[in-house]
Amino acid sequence: MFRSGSFRRRSPRTLLRVKRWWIPSVVYGVVALLIGLGVASATNGLLALSIDDKELPTQAVIPTSKQVLGAQAPDIATIAMPQGYESDPLLSMAVTRFRDVLAASGERSRIVTGSADFVVRDEDLPAQGFQMWVGGVNGAGRQGMANGLLAASDVVAAGEELPASPGAPVVPQLEYRFADYGAVGVEPDPQAWAAQDDYSHNSRQFADVVLSDEPWVDPEGLARVTAEWQDYIDHIRAYGYNGVIVSGFLEYVNFDRVGNGNEIYPEDSPHRARHEAMVEQFGNMWQYADEMGMRVVFKTDMLANTGPLDDYVQRELGGFDVDDPRLWEVYQAGLEEFFENMPFVDGLMIRIGEAGTVYNSPGWDYFSTLAVTTVDSVRTMLTKFTATAGEYGKTIYFRTWSVGVGEVGDMHTNPASYDTVLDGIPADNLVVVTKFTMGDFYSWLPLNPTLEQGEHPRIVEFQSRREFEAFSSFPNYLSADHQQALQDFEKKNPNIVGVWVWTQDGGPWRAGPMSLYLKTGFWQLYDLDVYATGQLAWNADADLAEVNRSWITQNITDDPATARTIEAIFAQSRQVAKQGLYIPPYADKRVLALGLEPPPMMWIFEWDIVSGDTAALSVIHNASRGRIDEAITGAQDAQAAAEKMLAEAQNTDPRAWKDPALRDRLIHSLEYEVDLFATLAAHRAAFLSYYDWIDTGDPAAWDAWEANKAAYDSAVAEHAATYAQDLDTPAYSFFAAEAGFAHAERTRSSQAVTLVVVVGVLGLLGWGLVGRGRGGAVGVAARGLWIGATRPWRLVDEPTQSRGARVLVWVLPAALLLLSRGSFSGWLSWTYLLATLGSIGLFVGTARVLIRGRDPFALYAAAGAALLWKTLLLSLVVVMRGPLSYWYRFWTDEQFRNIYVPLSFALFLWLFWVTYVVMRTAYGCGRLRATGRVLVAVSVPMLFLGALMQWSGLESALTAFNDQMALLPLGLSRILGITVHLGIPTEIPLYLLVVAAVLAGIGLLMGAARRTQTPAARL
Fold this sequence. Notes:
The structure is a single chain. With 1019 residues, the protein is an alpha/beta fold. It is built from 32 helices and 19 strands. The strands form 5 sheets. The chain has an 8-stranded parallel beta barrel, surrounded by 5 helices. Helix 11 links the parallel strand 15 (395-399) and strand 16. Helix 3 packs parallel to helix 4.
């Protein structure tokens, strides 16, 4: 190559052969660029970022009720009830409530026969309808009479007068008025809530009642939860609901109709004994709801599974093939048994869109799998299930919630996909259940267009305890939105037949306030919405101002001035929450990315995890460009509005409250809202100013970032210190924000180190160009790298330089590579450094082993030079505005990807080419052997990465990488998991191992391991 700073003389024949390498090198470079363009196109298609305006409902206005002076309770000394009412739990509950209300202002009414002050009669009226007036109630059977008594209780308790005459019958507008099961059977355990890091969606309902051994059900625990259940059923029945949704299915089924009856659960199976105990003992509890005139519907994920069931399906059917009718026949057999075991059950509700570990309970052999993701499998499942349910006069309720997975992933919000999945299924006992917004229970979403269509009856889902909005731990009145949605859907779709209100469920149970409906915490905040939405199910045009005043009078205060204050707080609470918890310039856009539609609250993902990842924050800033000031001041406005509500609550007279403790709770919740919004405002200002600097380079934006970051640090510290141990209003989690800000804070140091890298790369290559090997070992190494960077095929002769040159030719590029990748990761991610530097080291190291006995100078020079080019490309991007500027452009700028990705990928492929070239020219390998050596060198890092991920698990590996690099929301792995949420095959590590083994095998067969004694410059 060169000696003592000068080239060794070459023969004309050797020079001719060497010069001919530039032609295939140019061809390879062009092909590599074309492949890079394909990768860029695929990357653009994968990210598929688009930002458009979306059509949002107009802001619902909540009128203030007219001032109503409390009317005196009617003088009703006697009530005549139908004969035998005492044996009817529904009528007994209804009349008891009426008597309790009357007794609040006088003596307790007596039940008599014959004539009375107030007579309850069974009349021929529309189903469930009633007439209610000062002289009594006319009702359609037991349901109508109970409805009339409960309505009369409401009127009297709200301080209003009963009508003077019966008037037209009151009939419910919607047939199905469902509620979830509340918090029945969920133990308020402060220790379980204290950590605030349990994002499991499993409620652990009845966890201390259902036993793992005999007697299978704890008698004392069952008695306690039975009392809770009856209180809950009485409560929601009084609110106008006529159905309840209960979790469970396989817990009540032994699959006795499969095979000989013991195929899945043998006679001595503990599962079998437990199921029989639950049917008998819990069945009595569920039957109470049926006796109270409630439809009892169980809900389950599909595929639902147990250990023995899994074993049977694997053994007999070869696995869970959702397109195999035999699989559904097994579930059909279970469904038959389910309906026969508990004939009072009205039907089964099925969800296919969420499942897995987030819902499973450790140590509990009942679990679910997200597997029904194709159109054919959904239609097969529903056809078979409705046929079975129809034989028993039961109903299948199908939820369209599909969260973006598989062919049916957009069924929830895409009208065309909805029709493809459900149209033409011939079932008169199929009811379709759908969330009312075009997405999950967030604000700033359009109404769900699929609820405007469909041939099947439709139920609209609402959530009163808004999981994504601090679990309603401060006022957040929702029923005006619910009214607006119902009115719109009913105008457009005559098949709207019901509502399903979530009083408690949704999201993680123990990563949020320990507010359990009717049990602990400030559950009254969302009880108003449970009550009001129940009224809307009877009449979507109800006057919400009067509905709200009625609830406030019954539960908070009968003082008119205090009632108006509470009304005002609830009336403005919705808009305040929407401003404080969302960034409107982003939230009012429809954003698509990674094939999904991210929620309008990506800066909090999800529940209480404040984001710091570059993907979310880059897109939020990009969508807010031109409105950054609005985005920042909007948070401050929300904080000011919350402070105003707090002052109004503080100005109320404690003596005017029915329970002064509720006043204290309201004040505490508003104090929390003020503090939370102040903290979130500081976070919003900090990241928006930082990303504004990345986008514009404006020094004022950098100064704002530094000031806002200091304010954020102070606000977070105070927020955590105040609310970290508060179970009613727990502190939000900022670990994800801190992870992102840790990278941002190292921007200047990363720029400085990257500048050193740029100067080092250019200086090293420049020295190699002009120095021509002078300058001792460093000069020789630089010259080798220059030739490797420009003409690697000329690294053909044996070097005769010192050991120092042979070391420096790899140490110098390795050091620059380490500095580049370290500064790019902010020195915060060992997983990134292990994956990148480890892979490069294994590739070059393997190639070095394969030329054993030969001097590695040429290999090191060629590979090191290729890596210098790639390092220089990345560093030129990073040196401008730091590593996060790279990610900002990558996530949001297609033009940047179209330029950078092809160049970067081509330089990545160039490493393999130059390795092949020096194997041919410097080490005399033939085409096959040189190719084989490159393949073996490529296979080793693939084997290493595949084995490492196989050992740790792909989900764990991606989580560790993402937690350190903060690229995607850090909450992903804590919810569904990165692999599930993004549809990443968990078999990737195995694929890597297989491909690597194949490459290594091919390479070895091509002679990669054979020695070559003499160099030859050959094509």
